[in-house]
Amino acid sequence: MIDDVTKEIVRKRANYLCEYCHSPERISTTRFTIDHLIPKSIGGSDELSNLALSCRRCNERRYNFVAGYDPETKAIVPLFNPRQQIWSEHFIWSANGRTIIGVTPIGRATCQRLDVNDERYPEDDSIQSARGYWVQAGLHPPSEDPKEN
């Protein structure tokens, strides 16, 4: 069980953004979840170095996977690890700020495994639609400068 102090440390460290899709927690109706980078079901711990802030969508889609399939290289690669990697080295935002684009094998595999763009759903029912509203409201995409989010 992760205590409230640890949860708040994880939330602050992530600047209140999902560490996978960068959705802002402040516009969610519920607090984000704490994700285990190495799931407890396969030996992961509750140590801070193994914890990430995750929106429910990403947490549920990640489940207990630690690797994914890169559609470009056809390789199985590790999923993005926000404790060891920098988001902007693996992902970029589309010009309209609605779509996350994986630019490395890890980025592409993570986008596919977590379905960060809801590509299986009509655009009107997807996270891309919500991101469009966030862009209009000036809340998205998040700045690379954590003080601005």
UniProtKB/TrEMBL annotation:
Task: Answer yes or no on keyword Hydrolase.
Answer: yes
Q: Which UniProt keywords apply?
A: Endonuclease, Hydrolase, Nuclease
Which SMART domains does the annotation name?
Answer: HNHc (SM00507)
Q: Which residues form the HNH nuclease domain?
A: 5-60
Q: Which GO terms describe its molecular function?
A: endonuclease activity
Name this protein carries in UniProt = HNH endonuclease
